[in-house]
Every structure is written in structure tokens, then in C-alpha cells.
Write a structure and sequence with these properties.
It is a single chain. The protein is mostly helical. Helices cover about 75% and strands about 0% of the residues. It has five helices and no strands. Helix 2 packs antiparallel against helix 3.
Length: about 140
């Protein structure tokens, strides 16, 4: 959403944009903490594959929210894809209380794909909703 569109839509739209941006920043911080904290973030797993679900949600939320706030996909998605591999290598080699897991990378990539798909759908729906059918 461009700045002029926000200005023309009023203060409510400005707050909506700020809220989406704050959500993106928060998702990035949680994402980085979850992947790079010296110990595994959160309590022990309470159900099988909980760790994989967390990876899927971490990458999916950053991809979705990043696209939603206007981060260019050509930058966001490759950086996140590279981070799927880098984070596991860092966990394996540099964080002694963590271990890298190739299946985490698969979960990360699935989350990235899901978040990108949902993000592109949201952007497409936003464009369609903003389109004036009468051409005024």
C-alpha cells in the first residue's frame, strides 16, 4: 500500500498499516529468537512433531507478514530460503546445546511456501477489493 493511498484513506488506514508493520517486526523478532537462541526456545515438546510445526509457523508468519507489509518478494523469499539452511547449520555447529536437523529445513521451506502463498493471495484480494469496477 503506497503512502498516498494511506493518506487518502484516513487515519484508520494509517493505524492498520502500522499494526501490520508491528506484527511483521514482532514476527521477525520471535523468528530470530526461536532459531538462534542458545537453548531451544519454549518448553519441551508436548506432542510429536511440535518442533516441526513451530518451524513451519515461524517461517510462514514472517513470509506472510513481510509480503503483506510490502517487502519485495524478490528480496524476502530468497533471504528466508537461505535462512532455512543457515539457521540449521548455526544450530548444529555454533550452538552447543542445539542440534541441526535437516527435517527442520523441510518444515521451514514448507512454512515459507505456505506463508508466501497466503501472502500473495492476500495481496491479490487487496488489489481486487480496491479495483473500481465502474472505472470511476
Amino acid at each position: 500500500m503506497s503512502t498516498t493511498a494511506v493518506k487518502s484513506s484516513g487515519p484508520r488506514a494509517v493505524w492498520r498499516v502500522r499494526l501490520w508493520r508491528a506484527a511483521f517486526v514482532l514476527a521477525c523478532l520471535i523468528h530470530l529468537y526461536g532459531l538462534y537462541s542458545p537453548r531451544q526456545a519454549g518448553p519441551e515438546a508436548s506432542f510429536p512433531l511440535e518442533d516441526k510445526l513451530a518451524h513451519l509457523l515461524l517461517f510462514g508468519s514472517v513470509a506472510y507478514l513481510g509480503l503483506r507489509v510490502g517487502v519485495p518478494a524478490r528480496w524476502l523469499l530468497p533471504v528466508l530460503a537461505a535462512n532455512t539452511i543457515v539457521s540449521e547449520l548455526v544450530q548444529h555447529f555454533l550452538l552447543p546445546q542445539r542440534s541441526g536437523d535437516p527435517l527442520d529445513t523441510v518444515a521451514d521451506l514448507c512454512g515459507l511456501a505456505l506463508g508466501a502463498w497466503l501472502g500473495f493471495r492476500a495481496l491479490r484480494a487487496q488489489k481486487v477489493a480496491g479495483h473500481d469496477m465502474m472505472g470511476a
